[in-house]
Amino acid sequence: MTAVTARETAVTSADIRKRGRLVFVATIIILCAWVLAPIYLLAINALSSPEQVNAFPKSFVPGFETDSIAFFMGFAGVARALFNSVLVAGITMALSIGLGAPAGYALSRFDFRGKDAFRIMVLMTRAFPLPLLALPLAVMFIRTGLDDTALGLALVHTTLALPFAVLITFSLFAGIPVELEEAAWTLGCTRLQAFYKVVLPLVLPGIAASAVFAFVISWNEVFAAAVLTIENRTLTAFLLQNINVSPMHLKFAGGAVLVVPALIFIFAVRKYLFAMWGIANR
Amino acid sequence: MQQRTLPYLLLLPATLFLCVFFIYPFLLVAWQAVSQDGALTLDHFRTMAGHWKFPTAFWNTMLLALAVVPVQLALALFMATLVTRMGKGRDVILYIWTIPLGISDLAAGIIWLAIFEQTGFLNSMLSGLGVVEQPVAWLGYQNKGTIFLAVVLAEIWRATAIVLVILVAGMGLIPKEYYEAAEVFGASPWKRFTRITLPLLRPSIQTALILRTILAFEVFAVVIALAGTNFPVLMGETYHWQFNLQDRHVAAAYALVILAISIAFTLVFLRTLRVPREAQP
Amino acid sequence: MAEISIRNVAKQFGDFTALHSVDLTVADQEFMVLLGASGCGKTTLLRIIAGLETPSRGEVWIGGKRVDHLPPRQRGIAMVFQNYAVFPHLTVFENIAFGLRMQKLPRAEVDRRVTRTAELMHIGQLLKRYSGQLSGGQRQRVAVARALAMEPDVILMDEPLSNLDALLRLEMRAELKGVLAESKTTTIYVTHDQVEAMSLADRIAVMDKGRIVQAERPIEVYRNPAARFVGSFIGNPPMNFLPAKKGANGSWRVAGVTFEGPRAEREEIAFAIRPEDLSPSEGGLPAEVRVVEPLGPHVLVTCDVEGHLFRAVLDSDIVLSRGDTVKLAPTPDRIRWFDPETEKSLQHHQ
To answer: Where are the transmembrane segments (chain A) (predicted)?
Structure first.
């Protein structure tokens, strides 16, 4: 009698666990679909011919035509915009790592007066809508001849990316025990030698990840790019400028061109994403 | 002493950069907003506030933030809790869920345009199911409600990932022993979530809320892509005044409004979600 | 040839004084251990000698050369760190060769020295591995080999064994002693482990609150503590202390028993005896037994003597239980006396 009840309860609790597991997996799949489905729909549009894009009702499988993308790439100004986007993002990447990494190193290795003030300044940038910087800088750039240049826009994008670069490199350097550097000093290294023989090889992958992050920030930025460039449009600014006048298939092809590199970049830095934010929380 | 000057030398480039391209421009934009030909004036604010679009833009922006941010926080908390229970496959799922992190707001707008435009996938599906006969102009100027909904969906889709990343990183910092201890003392999963996860996650929640709210006030490209000028928001109006109306003083006034609400909300979050120093680990 | 001389060295961290004016001379080829509890300044002193920390005041001389203004690489030292600091991106071979390559030694010489020190530390078979593939003990060996390969005048060691488990620590301790004696370097070794200090040192410098309290041969530090702190820090269990009241003719009364003691212009001084220098005997100190712990070769008895904690290590044959009263007589020539205010030894020659 008791044995039977025991078995029954065992069965039901196993059932409940099984059902819970099912709900768990289903929820995860639904959430994955929520993220992936819109991207798939964009891909359908980008991989269909203009006629298919504008047809109704629409097919839920791509036509596997490349005319939309080809048309977009051949569209006047697109190639140049693409080049500008890469150029601006490249400069942003170099500037934010070049300026941010030394600061991150200093924060991780030294105790000095003014350290907190600097940290607060960096954290403060988070409380400010940074793209708005483009407004006053537009004036400043006209005076200095930086208006409508890749460098000018990259400077604004660097203010966006620099705080991240500082915090991320800070966490990277803080993760390298000081003892390793000290050991190198006692073994005959100068500070600089110890840095590039011991610290640099260890943080290089992380630095690369934060450089990629800076690149993505610049690549995706719309407002400042639209305000600061006229002739030398970046891809985002170009798309925004033409969004009301361009046909649908052009928009979708443009969107796809914007998304693809970003996907690759996020894949490249995925390992560092959480470590970065764990520390940036502070 | 080299030891003593080195940190300052290392900080100097970044500090100078931030002074020139962050602090100075903000002073400049503030000055632009309150001056005309070198004299103080509130005219630009009056022009701004007097324009018929201003109240609409202001409330649209506020409502958007109000609709988007809480949903994102709840959704991200839910996803992060799921993540902590995952065994193998965790990395793949996390990568998929963080994909939108790399997608720009403009691209996100275009992606959701593919769904909501008149010949888009939503209408295709609905007509396929026989729900509608004619494609509906979801994003037409007369359908303010569906425009709002489309923007909200696009924003939730795009920017929940950043909240998720911050929360997952924060959860990673909570020692497992706390949960085990709570379990030993008889706390249910829900109790463990409300009594351990939430309080210990407070710094991460604070960071995420500040970041997301400020970004929500900056909403711009998603709206432009989905609704054009049918749905005014603050950032869009700033752009409009700067570019189309060529009045950078009024644009600066808009910028100050966005700045003011951003700072106000940051302060609120800093205060209400503060962790007392003694309670910090 | 490298004698190390520390003259009047002080270190201030903000409001906190880590070192008050320390003087210490370490003879050539001597093995000096800096012993003290955490926060006593021993590591700070070592780091000042290494050049990883700059002294607020004072001078450091190594081999007749003043070095306190020189960076570590110009001091002729090698150092072994607490967490080993084995470079994770280099193989064991490259780790040991690191310093030699910095000196731009010819290839053959680098190979010779790496092979020799690796053999010496029994890690010859690990040369191609990376730090992540090594156990704690093996990493420790790499760290020591890397220091030895430099053939330095001075080796500095910062708690090198503290991260090893007990058995490994014992083994490494003996091995280190042998290797370092052979290498003929001057060694300064920081530890908080008194057994390690006793077993390794030619001399122990006991540190407390940023000062060197006593720097003498281990047995001297053990038998004749220069201050109450040394007696209570070294020895397990530590020294017992009881108040002694002045009696007639220069004698002192301790818990009702009279002892011959030093002349002192005080009404009360401190009487001290090591737990193992006690034996049960009529006329000893009256002690009420609180806890009895048999430890194998002997038995540790914790008692109460007139309200003071008092421990005795007795022969394991003795039968005692809680609540018993036992008379414990100290071996007369092992009794020590301390000034209650200065806490210095009253018969120590200083």
So the answer is: 22-43, 81-108, 120-142, 154-178, 198-219, 252-273
Find, among A180, A222, A224, the residue nearest to A198 by Cα: A180
Partners of C73 on chain A (C-beta within 8 Å) are 185-190
Q: What is the interface pTM, i.e. ipTM, of the complex?
A: 0.84
pLDDT in tens, A166-199: 988 888 898 899 999 999 999 999 999 999 999 9
Closest among C84, C140, A126 to B218, alpha carbons compared: A126
pLDDT tens-digit series, residues C310-344:
999 999 888 888 999 999 999 989 999 999 888 88
- Tell whether B190 lies on the interface with A, counting CB pairs under 8 A: no
Verify that C26 and C54 share a domain, yes or no: yes
For residue A189, the chain C residues in CB contact (below 8 A) are: 73, 102
State the DSSP string of B44-58.
Answer: HHHHHHHSTHHHHHH
Q: Which domain holds residue B2?
A: 1-41
Q: Is B201 helix (H, G, I), strand (E, B) or coil?
A: coil
* B140 vs A130: CA distance, rounded Å: 31
Contact in structure between A112 and B4 (CB atoms under 8 Å): yes
Q: In CATH, what number is assigned to the domain containing residue B170?
A: 1.10.3720.10
Q: How many domains does chain C have?
A: 2
Per-residue model confidence as pLDDT tens digits over A75-105: 777 888 889 999 999 999 999 999 999 999 9
pLDDT for the residue B12: 92
What pLDDT does C28 receive? 93
Shortest CA distance from C51: residue in chain A: A186
pLDDT at B9 over 50: yes
Domain boundary (C229, C254, C283) is at C229
Give the Cα separation of A54 and A38 in Å (integer).
18
Mean pLDDT of A6-23: 72
Q: Which of A98, A159, A276 sits opposite B22 (nearest CB)?
A: A159
Residues B13 and B141 placed together within one structural domain of the fold:
no
Q: Which of C67, C74, C81, C103 to mutate to test the interface with A (most CBs of A within 10 A)?
A: C81
Of B96, B211, B259, the CB nearest to A132: B259
Question: Total domain count for chain B?
Answer: 2
CB proximity list for B212: less than 8 A, separation 6 or greater: B69, B72, B73, B159, B162, B163
Confidence of residue A206 (pLDDT cuts 50, 70, 90): confident
Kindly determine whether residue A132 and residue B239, on different chains, have CB atoms separated by under 8 Å: no
Distance CA C138, CA C175 (A): 13
Of A250-259, B140-149, B219-228, C22-31, the range with the highest mean pLDDT is C22-31
Of C229, C247, C264, the residue that ends a domain is C229
Burial tier of B263 (Cβ tally within 10 Å: 0-12, 13-18, 19+): middle
| Same-domain pairing of C65 and C166 | yes
C186 with C313, same domain: the answer is no
The whole-angstrom distance between A145's CA and the closest CA on chain B is 16
In the block, tokens 């030093």 appear at C262
Per this entry, what is the length of chain C? 350
CB–CB of A186 and C78 under 8 A?
A: yes
d(CA C322, CA C304): 11
Which residues are bridge partners to C206 per DSSP?
A: C35, C214
Q: Are C24 and C55 in contact (CB under 8 A)?
A: no
Confidence at residue C349, expressed as pLDDT on a 0 to 100 scale? 44
Look up the CATH number of the domain holding residue C144: 3.40.50.300
% of chain B at pLDDT higher than 90? 15
Give the nearest chain C residue to A113 (CA atoms): C14
What is the residue-averaged pLDDT of chain C? 91
Q: Residue A9 has what pLDDT?
A: 56
- Asked if C299 and C292 touch (Cβ cutoff 8 Å), the reply is yes
Coil, strand or helix: which one is A64? coil
Q: Which two tokens stand for residue C33?
A: 């251990």
What DSSP state is assigned to residue C125?
G
